[in-house]
Structures are given as C-alpha cells and as structure tokens.
C-alpha cells in the first residue's frame, strides 16, 4: 500500500531554516503529484505548497511564498520542503500528501494519501 513518511522536523529559532523530507513507497512516484500541508493546534489543516505531476511546477500558499521551496527527487521517491526565514506562526505539524491527478490542488479533500506528520516548532 501507499506509504508516506515525513522527517526533518524540529525546534528552530525564528529566522532559521529546516528541510523536511517525505519518502514515498507503494506507488509509481513519478506519476503522482505531491503536496505539503500544516496544522496548528486548534486550526484547520492548511495548504502550504504543491508540485504538479507532469510539469513538476511548484505553487505555494501566499503565507510561505518566497520563503519555502518544494522539490522532488524521483530517483529517491522523495519530496522536500525547504523552509527558510521561519517565523513563530509557521509552528505546526507538517504533513505530506499525494494524488495522481493533474492541476493545482489546494484542498486536503483532494489528496488521496497522507503521511503521519512531523512537528515544526519555531521559537521567537
């Protein structure tokens, strides 16, 4: 079955950087689009960024544009989220997710498979 495993979370000071990884198995990775979401306590899960399946074009939420960068390595079945200039409001559990459809998908309901999440905490 499809499995997604996130890693790389942790505690960082404001202004610092982290790189999250999401390793996928049980699917033909190159045929799937990937997304990152986050969820803070008491809040709904929100879209962070995505990378399309065919063009590998990336797109981001306005709140992280210019600070976060998605990339993928099809040889390693892994997608990355490079997070720079982190802010305390970036604190959340970060999830990767995947789906096989084309287009720009920002809703959690549009993604088929999810990882367990990794905690990111940004101190002020």
Main beta-sheet annotation = 7 strands, mixed
Summing up helix and strand content along with how strands pair, one would put the structural category as mainly beta
* Approximate strand percentage: over 45%
Average pLDDT works out at 95
Regions with pLDDT < 50 over 5+ consecutive residues? none
Helix content: under 10%
N→C terminal distance: 40 Å
C-alpha Rg (nearest Å): 13 Å
Total number of beta strands: 11
| Count of helical stretches | 0
Shape: globular
Order of helices and strands: EEEEEEEEEEE
Summarize the structure.
The chain has 124 residues and is an all-beta fold. The protein contains no helices and 11 strands. It has strands at residues 3-7, 10-13, 18-25, 33-39, 46-51, 58-60, 68-73, 78-83, 92-99, 113-114, 118-123.
Q: What this model shows, in words?
A:
The protein is mostly beta strands. Strand 7 (68-73) and strand 8 form a beta hairpin. Strands 2, 4, 5, 6, 9, 10 and 11 form a 7-stranded mixed beta sheet that branches. It has strands at 3-7, 10-13, 18-25, 33-39, 46-51, 58-60, 68-73, 78-83, 92-99, 113-114, 118-123. The chain starts with a strand and ends with a strand.
Topology:
Blueprint: E1 3-7, E2 10-13, E3 18-25, E4 33-39, E5 46-51, E6 58-60, E7 68-73, E8 78-83, E9 92-99, E10 113-114, E11 118-123
Parallel strand pairs: 2-11
Antiparallel strand pairs: 1-3, 3-8, 4-5, 4-9, 5-6, 7-8, 9-10, 9-11
Quickly list its features.
single chain, 124 residues, mainly beta, 7-stranded mixed β-sheet, globular
